[in-house]
Protein 1
Amino acid sequence: MTDLSIDRRHPPPSVVDQDVRLAARPGARRRLGLGRRVPGMLALGPVLLLLAWLLGSATGTLDPRTLSAPWTVVGTAGELIADGRLQSNLAASLYRAGTALLLGVGLGVLLALVAGLSRVGEALVDGPIQIKRAIPTVALIPLAILWFGIGEQMKIIVIVAAVFVPIYLNTYAGLRNIDGRYVELAESLGLSRAQFIRRVALPGALPGFFTGLRLGVTMSWLVLAVVEQVNATSGIGYLMSQARTYGQTDIIVVGLVVYGIFGLVGDYLVRTVERRSLAWRRTLGD
Amino acid sequence: MAADVGRLAIRVSGLTRGYAGRAVLDGIGLEIAAGEFVALVGRSGSGKSTLLRALAGLDAGVTGSGELHVPTGGSGAAARVAMVFQDSRLLPWARVLDNVILGLVGADARDRGRAALAEVGLADRERAWPSELSGGEQQRVALARSLVREPELLLADEPFGALDALTRIRMHALLRELCQRHRPAVLLVTHDVDEAVLLADRVLVLERGRIVTDRRINLGQPRTHRDPEFLAHRESLLTALGVGEHGVGEHTERKVVS
């Protein structure tokens, strides 16, 4: 998954024989860098964790009432998939998280542009968001229930309220950190405000935006788990809270694994998009 | 505004600028004809950059007064003044060609950008990121970005100051060639008297916010350091800058060695 070598991301201007001459030199790497990229290396930590779980269950160190064995969990997952419960609940969860993430990203970026590109906007927008930020989103749920009921609307609104904050904060910081020299350049070239936003402000704030997006993706999943356990008739959180009622540890663990997998997949997707979008950057991570 | 300037590219009179109550430009009067190449030399703190930034309209918030006429183009939107900075100031997130055509509109923008890149010898690097270019190449892209706008006035703030000596020599030749082809009026700020005499039709010396010397350089191109007339101009300008003796001595030594 990490086969994107430097040469592929920075293709030499043309011709094939240059590719050969400019092939990656094995062993030539930055002395103070992070070390070599090994395909699949990012899976190392999770795999070790899984091994520990297997070992604990097999030797009986882990009581099944505390944590079901991996094979039990796999079996339960198989049953849940066979009767369609896992898919339908997962679809409900993904729909909520996806919708809320989309709305949250839109809202966060919009507010960041308003606050980041004008003093009046900053005065209007930044204060309330800082206040919002100080209040835990979960603490808003009682009010959200009174305002929006206990349906889908309330759940999505609560997730949006959590997601847009990191997007806003990081995009705003990205905008404000754009080098003043580029603003001067834009002025000397006679760029309109729209051109400036499109060509300078937005791409300049992109690194900050991606930091916010990664936090936002995690946040959407986190709040989703909470709102689905408060009152829901579908979703992974609902599945888990029902399992709790009947003491079904295995189903709870299936839910946790699903959350974990989708959290990882989400983060991986964002990082892939980020690497592609920020190909112009040369950082320690390369 | 362009009409009453006539064949002048710049007309400035009584221009003052100051920071925090301290005058940096003290009543500058300056006329530059269309197509004329003028170099502005002066010690650091003499006000060179302040004057250039005033001409470029990049000094909002700076106090001052005076009359200032620069080309604005018909519609006002088309900037007829182009600026080259000491750093190439390329957007790191835009590829070379996109940097060149930044802010240009129209279907032919990319073709014009490619032509400008070809002129500075970088036709094959249009897809590169700025970080993949050498310092000299980056400054050539910055030149292409200025020229693609077909400016009537090219303002350059020590554009070669950050380059190594060999690259600078090649950039001098390139700039001369491009200016002969496109004929913009040029105001080149530099601290290098040799560079000024090598390139300019006229050299101005700025000292404490005033133009103290305005010297016409009537030499053909290409110019060479071995030309006695060149040396005379150089010496007189160095004297105006208050470093005459030292500069001449240094040069004599170099001559003996070669």
Protein 2
Amino acid sequence: MTRAIRILLALALLGALVLAWALLTGSAGLGWRAVVGTLAGHGTPLAREVVLGLRLPRASAAFATGGLLAVAGALMQVLLRNPLADPYVLGISGGAAVGALSAMMLGWAGSAASGSAFAGAMLSMVVVFGMARLRGEWSATRLLLTGVVVAAGWGAVISLLLALSPDSDLSGMLFWMMGDLGRARGGLPALLILLAAVAVCLPLGRHLNLLARGREQAAALGVNAGPLELGIYVLASLLTATAVTVAGTVGFVGLVVPHMLRLATGNDQRLLLPASALAGGTLLTAADTLARTVIAPEQLPVGVITALIGVPTFLYLLNRGS
Amino acid sequence: MPLLELVELDPDVPGRRTVPLSLAIEPGQCWGVLGPNGAGKTTLLHALAGLRRPASGEIRLRGEPLSRLSRRRIARGIGIVFQQHHDSFPATVRETALMGRHPHLRAWRSEGPEDRERAHRALRQTGLAALAGRPVATLSGGERQRLALATVLTQAPALYLLDEPTSHLDLRHAVVMLDRVREVLADGCHAAMMSLHDINLAARYCDHLLLLYADGSSAHGPATRMLREDRLEALYAHPLHAVETPAGRGFLPG
């Protein structure tokens, strides 16, 4: 267990460093003394506005979103017994996108838009689950096929919405779909959800390890596979819906982070899930900080950066293994 | 009290009506299940492990109906070696054997030194100790099969169900594998039921046999009473010759 704790401590340290970088970086030109002073409670009004009003909410939202996506991806991979599954494979993000884009078309903003995205995700979760169970017991394959088909359906609706939208809405919509932390207003609720999810999953880690070996093998070794699978499905969907509501559909984090960690540390979910939370948060915070600085004052969609970081790392790890 | 009791059991073989089956597996017994392809050997073993609901009838583990026991309780009493193994994710041989401890551990507890020792012993018994650190994906079919036995030995249930445990094994490893099973049964507290396609291995290792016929009927009893040419010819719908050898009676296809 000491090895697991060492790995988690290293990841936590890395996460803290990246968070510090995110708080120190920006166009306002604040030195580290000013930032630390502001965090301690005595800064100028301008520094307070920049650090506490802009950078901290955005960095915490990025960290929470990345963690949520990575944990949801790890859970989906176990649920579908497929190391290439990601949080979006079952159509959750498509439902959320339809909700979010519809809200933008109607001119809604703030919590109405977030609520609409979340409602779309939940609708998708219920539809996929209902269809997969329509005729008796679900299987990983049937769930996957149902999810993929429903996701394709959402894709068509998204295209329709984009085609019908006025030009002025389009760039906001595209940013949402590539992932955009610019409109995130603080990550505290999402961070709490992430913490609660990891706390729920930890005692189930050994059960999840067995489930990854297949439903029958797990059942033969005393795991109540049916309820556990349903629980994972609902939990992973909720985490994905939360992440997507905060930041839009950021790609790659949910696929690459758990997979990278699995290649590096093995497939013990008791380590993999908390490590995914930390590494996912770290990766997305770093990506978002890059996204808002490389061509400042313009901003890149954060999904572009996660893909640029994720793809080469992933390819390297794959080839190193063999 | 029998270890496992089947009462008027119809295990629900797909596309087939089964004559309800009643038998009792006593501690110390080694049962073989013989029958043609599709007769329902695997379905029966899965039902006995509580992995699928039978169409009718009841299965009792030490007098208690399986349907009223938790999965964890069942897994401490009954272990099963599957015919096929799915390995979607990378894992080592050691980790795979250690899975067998799951039903004995509470949710928050990790595997301790004693659990590791049990897994290691099972790997030694199955000749896999030298491969403990290897990824499962690099094993041969026969090694994978022996690893499945090591996992169930680590699980240490009272009743071992084995679905064609020798299917990927060479002659020597088939004999070694079944010798291991017999060693486990030697203390008189454990029992085994295994499906086999090799009548001669069944004759050598099983003291009781269950014959599952293609028409859904069955026969069971002491091996000496079941291993008769006429019964086996009817079972496989193929002529057979019994030959007496220094190692006992053998059967050759005619």
Protein 3
Amino acid sequence: MALQLRRKTHESVIYIDRDSAPRIMPSGEDFILEDLPIGTRVLYPNPPLKGLPNREAAIRYALNHPHGCDPLFAQLEPGMKVTIAVDDISLPLPPMATPDIRQTILEIVLDMLAGHGVDDVHIIIANSLHRKMTPWEMKRMVGARIYDEFYPDRYYNHDAEWSDGMIKIGETRHKEPLNLNRRAAESDLLIYANINLVPMDGGHKSVAVGLCDYVSLRAHHEPQTIRDSDSYMDPARSELNNKCVRLGKLVDEHVNVFHIETAINNRMYKGDMDFLLKNEDDFTAFDRMKFEAMRYAMSKLPRQARRKLLHSRPAQYEMTACHAGKTDPVHEKIIAKGFEQYAIPVRGQCDILITGIPDISPYNVYSILNPLLVQVMALGYHFNFYRNKPLLKKGGVLIVQHPCYDEFDHNFHPSYIEFFNRLLPETRDSFVLREKYEQEFANNPSYVEMYRRGNAYHGAHPFFMWYWGENGRQHVGKVIVAGAENAHVPAMLGWERADNLTEAIAMARSYMGNSAEITMLHQPMIGIADME
Amino acid sequence: MALIYTDFFHYPKWVEYGILTTVPLARQVLANTDLYKNSVPDLGGSVAAAAFYDLEGTLVSTNLVHTLAFYAKNQPGLLSSLRKSTRTLLSLPVFAATDQYSRKVFNDLFFKSYKGQTEDRMRFFAKELFETILKPAIFPGAYELIEKARSLGLRQVVVTGALDLSVKPLVDHLGITDYVANHLEFVNGVATGRLLPPVLAAATKASWIRQFAEREGINLSDSYAYSDSMSDLPMLSVVGHPAAVNPDMRLRQAALHHDWPILNLK
């Protein structure tokens, strides 16, 4: 089996041998070099697909050749009420270099609307229960021209706690309630502009989740749904996706939605940091120099400065596809394009899965990757990056490389702090947490007010983050944190700790056996292990 | 009332705790009035938790000085108004300095400025004070915060060091029935410049909350408290869900240290 596994099967699948170079691993804001055991399989992100040479033209073409409905211009009438909803700052990651794709879409759509006498236009950020974006972030996302014209009266964040701003749409046949943003739901036309970074994004989730309230979200952001999703990065086997589709059908019965979806490649870094996406065996002297220079510079900076530096590096994503029209056919095409970029054919599960956690997640843009977010990146996102079956065998060991510092952002994640310090010592059972505490946090007036008037994630959001790791938690036998700078954070999360990766691998082997198959996800990567 | 007096308003105990330095002159007045009974109505029912709010700086942007300045401006006679207003203006640095030092010292000094003002005049202008000064100063988020807390069935209680005369119309406007405030001492209808004890500030607010909770069957662990000032740290510390609202620098640091939510209602 081992020999069969070690045959080179794909350009993104590398096996460590006697002559292999050490691998670069992210560990929070740091990047470390680690020698991996011989035979370790390393999954790299696929090479970036070529971006579309003229994205404005691609967007215009999509608007004029939609799937399942009339072209956008044919749906416009003077005096009609139009709302444009856009994804929030959680997409893409890190925030992309300007102009953002959303800016390009908006410029084209707004020109078209103005040309057809449509003046009643609002732009709503579909942040759901995520934090509201700051004015600076909003300006960066859509450009100064649109911002100056629309902000703040006609360009704003969705407010899931504004009861007058929400409207009840109805229930699915499974009794899942749906309340939506009133302005969006009562518009003659709702245009949704999406960026699809991972297969979980887009589709019916955009409107039914992005513009809903806590009551609606509670029906599907819950532990059983996550347990039943295998994985939630695989729409065909995701119960979360099934529920979103049911809600989406309900949306389509009441709201005229014109969906614009875009796929992007995975060119996260370019230029001075592009070596992070390369196989270390293929490093040039210049690549090694860049890495050493970065490592030296970072080692001289305090953690906050390192964090700020990393967050100031915009991603160099390029648009690879754009489709518009009815949600289902559009999403189907974008998902197919996404898998073209992300799917890495992998044969055979592993006993030990290693992943470094970089300081990149949808929930800590310009902020701290706190312990709960480390948990969601490890057991949620990284574990779930598979199709067909998990990369890690049932009962296997997940090794996470991260300092696990006990730091939280008081402005963005206030309810996370209470969740971590008050609830986790009592129980880590998702079902108990949901039944006993979720609504208390969701209704805490302080958290509601910080969500509404500040930039805080909703009071219930840390629960969703915990549930997000539920299928990973049920699947793995043990999680070991390598490089954890303290003992209490791993203990609170129910994990073991090791001083470094070598020690973590030794601990994992003592559990899984010396012949355990080891696989490492070469982070930062956006890729789906397409299991045979 | 007698029970409350012996247990909570027993001044020697406050002297012993260092909260008061002397037994106030007006203790007999307090013992025979129903001021506090009115401010803590017995609603009955089975409310399990409450939300306690400081007022000035927390729900409204004004502070005690705004009220003083308003009354100084509305003296009988132009010269008197001018004289009082000037004195208030000149006193501002002293007020600021003493407030940093001790809220008790500040109160002793600050409320002396009301000496000589007549009660009927102050009551007469209370409505105008509310309409022109206090109502426009209510933070937009205050309505939402109160509404959310009310929807949870939390009993709404304002605990403030401001004067009862100015607080009443404000809490009525906010739909809050339970409140406790400071009371000026009047002799023959004229303010003496002293407050009727116990003076609500710092630790006395926390003590009042404990008493109130015990009397009304409120679980403080499930209760909330909101304040903007470091002087209200005791009040915030007695409940299970404290929050700093538009906090000053010292309270912000304390809130960060204790991992309390920090709200901005502006």
Protein 4
Amino acid sequence: MSKDITIKRGLSIRLIGGAEEVISDAPRSRTFVIRPADFHLITPRMVIKEGAKVKVGDTIFHSKDHEEMKFVAPFSGTLTKIERGARRVILNLHFDVDETDEYVDFGSLDAKTASADQIKAKLLESGCWPFIMQRPYHVIANPESTPRDIFISAFTSAPISNNYNFSLRGKEKELQTAIDALSKFTTGSIHVGMEKGVASPFDSIQGIKRYSVSGPHPAGNVGTQMNAIAPVNKGEIVWTVNAQDLVIIGELLLTGKYNPERIVALTGSSVKKPKYYKTRIGAEVSTFVYDSGLNEENVRVISGDVLTGTKIALDKHLGAYDTTVTIIPEGDDYEFFGWNKPVFDKISTSRALTFSWLFPKKEYDLTTNTNGEHRAFVMTGGYEKVFPLDIYPMQILKACMVEDLDDMENLGMYEVAPEDFALTEFVCVSKQPHQEIIRKGLDLMIKEIG
Amino acid sequence: MGLKKKLHTLKEKYRGTKMAPAFNAFHTFLYMPNMTTESGSHIRAADDLKRTMNTVIMALVPVLLFGIFNTGYQHYAAIDAANGITREVSLLENFLTWENFSLGALKVLPLVLISYGVGLGIEFIFAIIYGHEVEEGYLVTGMLVPLIVPVDIPLWMLVIAIVFGVVIGKEVFGGTGMNILNPALTIRAFLFFAYPTWMSGDKVWVHGAREMAGTPDAISGETVLGKLAQGNEVTTSIADMFFGFMPGSIGETSTFLILIGALFLLFTKIASWRIMLSSVIGALVMGLIFNGVVSAGWIGTNSPFYTLMDTTFWHHLLIGGFAFGVVYMATDPVTGSQTNRGKWIYGFFIGFLSIMIRVFNPAYPEGVMLAILLMNVFAPTIDHYVVKANVNKRKKRLNVKTA
């Protein structure tokens, strides 16, 4: 029994380098790094010093605002360096990894019978709480809040990203446990958006409201599904959890072990053999990137998918929330008369001597070039075609830029996350940084409205 | 690639200096920059503002070429007419001739050069002063301006108007993307009100008409719209009106080529079909209303409004600057309505008001310019109410919840 949701406005970007559906074990990482910046707006309070040894699940730091919210180690190892930036903000926590892992035993918990408080305490203690995000603002959920509903997207629609229908296969037990646990927190429902007509590990899960979603990207974004199912109103809070993170939560409750395993999709046109790797949060991406091999030297390594990920160097580490690593060619080259010659090798939503409309099935090899300079907003009507939310994208972006809190609130800022603006950013003729504008707007609202 | 390397070195040398915007404007004209994404979406679509503006210019080229030939043709046709010879226009025999082209080019190209030279000069100066990149908006404005002025306009007059239009109409608001009024129309409106004798009447639309006025060789150069407004007899056939073989502003006469330009802009998805369609609907509705008024007998034949009101409703689309204004200027995304629903309303009123102004103001029969400028002013208001509907929907959702 599921409801149908059809997304009409959007854009499926076809890129070369989708991951082949095979899982290999990534070589064991020799170091791991925790980036506090992955946990947006969390101010870390360190509980260990340089030189300290940690087991998997040992607390590294906790949140300044919520002491009970712990952030834990994904490997056994030794803290070698606390890298600080301006105003002593912690940028990176570098660890050497031990040869074998020792696990902290948090003790298992029966999700069906345990109370909400017991589960909450367990998740906070074990470092699983940060996987729960909230809207408004798209930040880690406040442990004191009660969500109206919980939304989970069971699939991704971003170009060359992790296919959860594949990578979550066989994890039904963990998923069910996590769903059982989460259902204790809300009086509303757990809404799960599933890809229409595709078998999913969520097919057998009990206690959820299912929706079969069809249409182009961003159909798989939880924000898109939320807007279609039940948008967030002022004063309401909803939670969202990434489907892969449910597995970590479920396993913790079943076994008492924090197991930050990730089935990462290594994708992109620069990758020789794009496929899935079993690795962990915080592991070096180079371990599996070199296993697969690169086609060229000058590449952009992205922890995350190509539309929303973080730019990292090749010797850096997998982000806390990322399930995809994308590698595409850097576009730091000039193109002779690139602005007026006919274009066959790039994607465009117009037909201004751009011919991608002729080849709707073609897969493209896009670089990181912006294809033009940053300009003021000029063109109108283009964003709406790729933006399925019932919100005026350009107006809300402008409200954020001029920091008009009333307009931001009225136009629907409580409902959005930066990732919802990835496609409008992609098609933007003026090359404006939409996601950054929205993130700054949300941060301003947290500061001013709370 | 020697040139690419050299330019890159120069760019790095100029980085951060006052001259950087000016250098970059030329550099990015030759080469699409080596700029890469930093955050957010790591890939971007192929279109930038240069490509978009370039597409509009391409849509204007046929109109410009036609305007050049027509300038020559109308001049020689008027001389023939003054000598009592009536010409039958024929595309290959007496229109696309070297004679017409050379005279037209001699008159029109200086206007184009002045327009780009002065306008881009101002853009460069402002970019250097304020340290921002030179924006592409003027590339289209610079092409529009020569097409919407009478051919014999003195160059100094054009210079003054462009300085006024670009500085007051655009730069004081913060440059491309921030202006309220369409810069090309601001320039034309300035000319219209500052030098009315050069911008209307029966002596400005054909090259030489003004100089020869009062001499034995005097030629007439009245537009169809002017004739209708004065209640004079119109001899131009509907076909000639459609294809553009008539006097008028340089680029506005050929509805046929404007239509081709419009189809190109719509196909490339650069211009809004909503604005174009609703403008045409608005004009037809107003035309039908006037036709109805006439057939109801509410207005006498001696009324000054009679001839224009009696003009068959769809003929309005062929005469004057209506088609040109709707296709190339009403669709300006910056000064037009920005919401899809707003575009319908905005466009409809442009069409509606164009014809209304045209009929009720026979002294200045060119209504489309004023209609677009007026709706430019109202576009933010229209958008405000369209967006407010969305805001109210959100509030209502909240009220239902709390009730």
